[in-house]
Amino acid sequence: MNAHTTPSAATLDPTGATPVMQQFFEMKARQPDALIFFRMGDFYELFFDDAYKAAAALGISQTFRGTHNGQPIPMAGVPQHAAEAYLSKLIRLGFKVAVCEQMEDPAEAKKRGSKSVVRRDIVRVVTPGTLTEDGLLDARGANRLAAVAIRAGQAAVASVELSTGEVEVFALTKEAVAPILAALAPSETLVADRLLSDDALSQTLKICGGLVQPMPSALSEPQASEARVKRLYGVETLDGFGGLSPAEIGALGLIAAHLEMTQAGKLPALRAPRRAADADVMAIDPATRGSLEIDRTQTGDRNGSLLAVIDRTVTAGGARMLASRLARPLLDVAAIDQRLDAVEWFVEHRQLRQRLREVLKGAGDMARGLSRLALGRGGPRDLGCIRDTLKVGERLAGMAGGSPDPLSPPPFELEHAFKALTPALHEGLSQFLNTLEQGLGPDLPALARDGGFVAAGVRPELDQARTLRDDSRKVIVAMEAQLTAESGVPLKIRHNGVLGYFVEATAGKADPLFQPPLNATFIHRQTLANQVRFTTVELADLDARIAQAAERALAMEVAAFEDWREQARLLADAIQIAAEALARIDVASALAEWAEDAGAVRPIVDASYAFDAKGARHPVVEAAVKRAGEPYTPNDCCLDASGEGGPRLSIVTGPNMAGKSTFLRQNALLAILAQSGCYVPAASFRLGVVDRLFSRVGAGDDLARGRSTFMMEMVETAAILTQAGPRSLVILDEIGRGTATYDGLAIAWACAEALHDVNRCRALFATHYHELATLEERMSFVSNLSLRAKEWNGDLVFLHEAVSGPADRSYGVQVAKLAGVPMPVVARAREVLDRLETKDQSPAKLDDLPLFAMSQAVVQAPAKAAPSAVETTLEDLDVDGMSPREALEALYRLKGLLKT
């Protein structure tokens, strides 16, 4: 199918355009790289190239409307009521959308002249990192906008969750950008365009930065950035945010510039930036994060991840906080203990926990509702969400205060959370809650313009307008009775399209109405053959009020909504603190619930170099085998970087399918859980804080960059060997398997030596090179572990039990049989294996290792082996002088020597 050839709006001359199309060209000039959602009545319409792109992406019809300079104008449109769904799809596909709304009623435009067009303007630019609508967001996942800036060799990453107002900024080294971005998992990342020439940074952004949005480098200059950040927060100085570095100001400035552009001047309700450094959280690089499947499996699913298995939260805010904690485990022992104290308190107060969780289920997503209100996108339901959620918090605080166990008060984290949820301690918040309780009705529409959300009895003038609007007939009947009684003349109040409401009397009885004093009240309007029509000042006023009642009622409701919206904006800090407090309570109680379900225990986290797990289990795998009705085999693991309480490095051997990879990942996940403030699935667990976690498990290639599986393995291994330190935890699986046997063994051996002697970190090293087992005898802090398997009646049984010592064999042929390899192939493999295993000499002798001490011997000619008995006898034979009989006897003799 041929591509369209119609010029784009950006290249067209707007001269001669109709007034409406002139508006479109103006909007397109302001946002040339966005699709313009141009409001036309009940539709959003797209023109020119935008129409082609939207039609192809959304699967909608593309037509033409009118002409411009003699060419038909391509057009596509979506209904206003369904726009959110179409927006969601476009954003997921990577488009940027500028929403151009009608800023006035068409009737208002006509007052300026019959040819006047409705005034329109861009009210927002929708990008992946600036979404706030529930329909466009994952309620249980964060949606972050990030920015990266580098000044004078110092890097900074800033992040804003626009839908909740959370702002963070990290000061770090260039090398630490990747782990932080991987932890934040932003939907959109802003970066100065000059930085994209840095290949390493560009690749980092590609891997973990969501949609990468290049920005003019001038926007990240500290002076201009500082001015924009001040405008964003409405402050005169940034001193209140601490001593922000130029890089931090530059990153925040990029975000401020992006928000100014996308939010059309509306200021979001943002919290003060929470500052951190790369040394505040455990560094987990993107490859490690992917292999451990912390919040997503390697296929991108949430189900099957660590987060999905432990998540028992009942609120959206709690779910997002739990995901954030798992993504960024802490390094501060005191902060970790505070989180663990909160979980332990809920473990000990089981009945109270269950009651609190039932109440928590009634909490809404107050933080996101507040953000929409601050940006002018919210509605009465968002106010209702704040009202209902504050009431839930008030109930929770009351329940905790009435705890039946006064000897065990809530720990620090929970105590502060319950205080934040007590409106009485915050006068403004308490008054606002009372206002919403009294002012909001029971049935709340999504939009203020739909009306009907202000409770009856709150505003008398609104009640009167509603009465006129909804019950005008009763009002007219009451006035009719009143006028008849006052005049003594039988009257009727009627209505027509010309006169509106009027008083009507029969011609024979109307005379008194022309005489004093009634003629001062009744004003003659019309005389017919049989009737005379009058009006009164009161009726004329009532007529106007009835005609305008609906409009006035809606205007008063919208005014009430705007008043409450402004109050919410002014109380944003207190509301956000309350929302965070609810999330903390939800997370702590949910983790206690999971701990009880999974039989998890409180870990001991300290400043040592220990890693001592007893009876530990992989939380995800255990959950899966339990669903299948099978038992899970727990295992111990003891490491100590200092070498005092255990080995620094454990070599893990065993057959495929025995559970080596599960064992490795299991221990890495224990560290993540413990430092996130969670209980761990083990009989006991002591952990010296891990500053960096590295995992090289699994195989994959990077075809786009021309990297083979082995090359990717070496790149990741290089990162580990150059960055791991004494506080790091490293798990390596099958290093060196992607190349020739001796090359692979050499690499694996050298890596093991480096981890032990140079990096001096805690490490688990799984391998099929059983020769590495000799390291236990040659190095001070190395141990051997193996995953047991047994042959039973010709079949291989995996015991999934980690025991001391190396594996006795690899059982590769047996695993091939289990995998369904054809029996003739399995039989032939067993035959070849038997022959190889019965050779007198091993193909490689490693008695004289360490390996690199042999490097000189490798290039020398190998020593000639002593001649065998067969060779000596054969050398002594005089073949030319032998008779046939003697030759036959010699052949038998040689054959006999082969058997000895």
UniProtKB/TrEMBL annotation:
<keyword id="KW-0547">Nucleotide-binding</keyword>
<dbReference type="InterPro" id="IPR007696">
    <property type="entry name" value="DNA_mismatch_repair_MutS_core"/>
</dbReference>
<dbReference type="InterPro" id="IPR036678">
    <property type="entry name" value="MutS_con_dom_sf"/>
</dbReference>
<comment type="function">
    <text>This protein is involved in the repair of mismatches in DNA. It is possible that it carries out the mismatch recognition step. This protein has a weak ATPase activity.</text>
</comment>
<dbReference type="Pfam" id="PF05192">
    <property type="entry name" value="MutS_III"/>
</dbReference>
<feature type="binding site">
    <location>
        <begin position="654"/>
        <end position="661"/>
    </location>
    <ligand>
        <name>ATP</name>
    </ligand>
</feature>
<dbReference type="InterPro" id="IPR027417">
    <property type="entry name" value="P-loop_NTPase"/>
</dbReference>
<dbReference type="InterPro" id="IPR016151">
    <property type="entry name" value="DNA_mismatch_repair_MutS_N"/>
</dbReference>
<dbReference type="Pfam" id="PF01624">
    <property type="entry name" value="MutS_I"/>
</dbReference>
<dbReference type="Pfam" id="PF05188">
    <property type="entry name" value="MutS_II"/>
</dbReference>
<protein>
    <recommendedName>
        <fullName>DNA mismatch repair protein MutS</fullName>
    </recommendedName>
</protein>
<dbReference type="InterPro" id="IPR045076">
    <property type="entry name" value="MutS"/>
</dbReference>
<dbReference type="InterPro" id="IPR005748">
    <property type="entry name" value="DNA_mismatch_repair_MutS"/>
</dbReference>
<keyword id="KW-0227">DNA damage</keyword>
<dbReference type="GO" id="GO:0005524">
    <property type="term" value="F:ATP binding"/>
</dbReference>
<dbReference type="GO" id="GO:0005829">
    <property type="term" value="C:cytosol"/>
</dbReference>
<dbReference type="InterPro" id="IPR007861">
    <property type="entry name" value="DNA_mismatch_repair_MutS_clamp"/>
</dbReference>
<dbReference type="GO" id="GO:0006298">
    <property type="term" value="P:mismatch repair"/>
</dbReference>
<dbReference type="InterPro" id="IPR036187">
    <property type="entry name" value="DNA_mismatch_repair_MutS_sf"/>
</dbReference>
<feature type="domain" description="DNA mismatch repair proteins mutS family">
    <location>
        <begin position="728"/>
        <end position="744"/>
    </location>
</feature>
<keyword id="KW-0234">DNA repair</keyword>
<dbReference type="GO" id="GO:0003684">
    <property type="term" value="F:damaged DNA binding"/>
</dbReference>
<dbReference type="InterPro" id="IPR017261">
    <property type="entry name" value="DNA_mismatch_repair_MutS/MSH"/>
</dbReference>
<comment type="similarity">
    <text>Belongs to the DNA mismatch repair MutS family.</text>
</comment>
<dbReference type="GO" id="GO:0030983">
    <property type="term" value="F:mismatched DNA binding"/>
</dbReference>
<dbReference type="Pfam" id="PF05190">
    <property type="entry name" value="MutS_IV"/>
</dbReference>
<keyword id="KW-0067">ATP-binding</keyword>
<dbReference type="InterPro" id="IPR007695">
    <property type="entry name" value="DNA_mismatch_repair_MutS-lik_N"/>
</dbReference>
<dbReference type="InterPro" id="IPR007860">
    <property type="entry name" value="DNA_mmatch_repair_MutS_con_dom"/>
</dbReference>
<dbReference type="GO" id="GO:0140664">
    <property type="term" value="F:ATP-dependent DNA damage sensor activity"/>
</dbReference>
<dbReference type="InterPro" id="IPR000432">
    <property type="entry name" value="DNA_mismatch_repair_MutS_C"/>
</dbReference>
<keyword id="KW-0238">DNA-binding</keyword>
<dbReference type="Pfam" id="PF00488">
    <property type="entry name" value="MutS_V"/>
</dbReference>
